[in-house]
């Protein structure tokens, strides 16, 4: 049963259950229609959201900022470690205490696994994980699930392919694990051998009962309802030739999609470099821009529920 | 006849006509008096302006930010390429799509010619060019023309001198071309040979019927109603000695202005380094600070007209 | 007698008198209770505060930003010299003139002594010194004094120890001098020989009649009501061995505090590195986090008084 959202920390997508997410999605639907009408009430007027981005980010940071401001809240914060006291050797704990005393909620992105949880233990105000380490990016998972629901009406019963860097990519990992809260028909893990999920993630996938199997894209493309693409970074490959060899197999082009179901949606957390051919953009499969757009209403819903903005 | 301002992209000053500018200037007059009374209505409350500065800027960025906020709008954005997804190899098109889905209007500064036009073709929301390439900086030209009108009551019939880097300086080029919408008596182009306007700009000047001729400052100073000064960057000169030789001839001092008309105004898009002697600041010719101040009411007027803020 | 706060520049704590500070502290009390009730009126709605941080800062910048936004004001500005026109060689005077024409008040941090005073002479709008050079950081001193008053009910009659870098640390110097406005019983200056106050500061201390004497921490710990700790930066010591030798004597640990009065408060402008052992955090002596938190209500009070926000 849902614990409710008010005042809650948002650290891992696995801290939530279906009912929680259903409440969130309905609130996001409401936000979406208020945005469309240009009639968003300033339910968070007078409130301050701290955006503490120890690592740079474009979409997560700006969509949180837009979400807060649409609801009448203000933001303070920083966009990298440079120029803040961390550079002088300040501990994360002290930085969090400061933010906690200036703001009503903290959104935190940090390169270390567990930073958001640690921050949440220190802060009096709610902490939202804007991505930490290699595993957790719960608000990305929320908007991803919301996008699936928007496209297909359901999240259960679908066949998913998750393609790319499943080892270091936190959006991909977070999305795969989030499917553990639902009943997917099957989840295909499509990655080069060196970028398959880490053992600890595979164990978690199993424990959550996610019907995940490794596959090659060409073998399963015809079965997929959702193809979630992520970037393969060249620097993950010690051998550049190895990189050149695999990249073609993980690039989505119109011909990749030839055997696809008519209502297959292609998703991507963005930014993309060349893993999705721009010619895919004009096909009905392209859902990644709509997915990015969903960042604002889903984060508005989240802020409004956690900060108790209410409906008017 | 004016197309009206609502929803319009602002890419080049040449996309506008006299009536458009007259509407803008009257709106700027109105903004100026609201600012003076401290009674600016929040006509853009709830709206978000994206400030996408791929190149750093001080005055353009901060005056747009102040303009948006005076009218009750909020801003999101970035102040350089560093730390945004562009660094990861994202295309300008994808970055623009993102901004377009988070904000209601995009102000874009970029080092490549044509970026603003390209962005405008992609974005659903209006795009304002905050300076791209070497040629276009339409909002600077708008506030420059507004400043001339404020000082002299008219823009037509005056004699202009434009001094400095007419080859790479986009403010100077934009200002010269903007005079093609009016009927200047004469426009003197005062530049070292290596910094004269490019051939394509000279052709445009001719096509627009701008009565432009090259001149030396000392020969024409007594005729000028407006002297528009811009910076000559040392790095434009392959030979440092050549730079040292020319710089004196393009530095404005009280003695330069000895033979000037009593109501000559000296303008400069700022920042200046040493091309205007600070002793000029206290003469009645110094209009560059007033010009800079006009950045806020002119950009308020522009945002209000394009975003449909209305009068109350 | 108090000159009143409206429109006043805030350059040095010594420009103010007890009555001024009493008015400020009462306004800060009021802000604190409005914050606690979540009922801060937007008395500065429509106003713009320029945050001109030529040097990076975390607490000062973010607490000013939070303070302005809690009161409904907006902010514009920059967080380092990088990327603003200063990099192109613009003078401080021209940068200040620009900010003055975009905003209603300027908060300035700069590494050069006297910058804030210089800016105040140029600007029409009030200038608040957010720290310049090695001596002045008046708003830090204000929140420090406010914190002493909160802990002890009074500022007069107490025994103070100021520990650390008294030579280059502007928070420590500003705090010591601020005690010249009150009647401390005694002020112990506790610093390594190479980090004792400069001769000019010692003369000022004397002229202000501050009962200051040099001391070693272990000799006076039992007498102190307030221990103000600041960071000793390694780079101040030409000889790293000398640094290693002294640092232990200036590190505050639970055992340092064993002989302390029960109501001794330990303060620190933060960030700290290792000059206060985290085990001190859970003792009742630890007041540095509360001190940091006071940054917001004290700066809200200051902005509201200077900008004439009034009470409702």
Structural topology:
3 copies of one chain form a homotrimer.
Chain A: H1 18-37, E1 48-53, H2 59-70, E2 74-78, H3 92-102, E3 105-110, H4 115-122, E4 127-132, H5 138-152, E5 159-163, H6 170-178, E6 186-190, H7 199-207, E7 212-214, H8 217-220, E8 226-229, H9 240-247, E9 265-267, H10 288-293, H11 295-306
Parallel strand pairs in A: 1-2, 1-3, 3-4, 5-6, 5-8, 6-7, 8-9
Helix pairs in contact in A: 1-11, 2-11, 3-4, 5-6
What do these coordinates show?
- 3 copies of one chain form a homotrimer.
- Chain A is α/β, with parallel strands linked by helices.
- Chain A has 2 domains: 13-136 and 295-306, Aspartate/ornithine carbamoyltransferase (Rossmann fold); 138-293, Rossmann fold, CATH 3.40.50.
- Helix content of chain A is 37%, strand content 14%.
- Chain A is built from 11 helices and 9 strands.
- In chain A, strands 7-6-5-8-9 form a 5-stranded parallel sheet. In chain A, strands 2-1-3-4 form a 4-stranded parallel sheet, sandwiched between helices.
- In chain A, α4 (115-122) links the parallel β3 (105-110) and β4 (127-132).
- Chain A is globular.
- In chain A, 54% of the residues are buried.
- The model of chain A has no long low-confidence stretch (mean pLDDT 94).
Q: Which properties best describe this structure?
A:
five-stranded parallel β-sheet, Rossmann fold, 11 helices, alpha/beta, four-stranded parallel β-sheet, 9 strands, homotrimer, 37% helix, 312 residues
- Please tally the β strands of chain A and state the result: 9
Which oligomerization state do the chains in this entry correspond to?
homotrimer
Architecture of the largest domain in chain A in CATH?
A: 3-Layer(aba) Sandwich
Low-pLDDT residue spans of chain A: none
Main pleated-sheet profile of chain A: 5 strands, parallel
Lateral strand order in the biggest sheet of chain A: 7-6-5-8-9
What's the end-to-end separation of chain A, in Å? 26 Å
The level of helicity of chain A is 25-40%
How many domain modules of chain A? 2
* Largest protein-protein interface: A-B, 24 and 25 residues
Globally, the shape of chain A reads globular
Question: Helix/strand/pairing class of chain A, anyone?
Answer: alpha/beta
Gyration radius of chain A, in Å: 19 Å
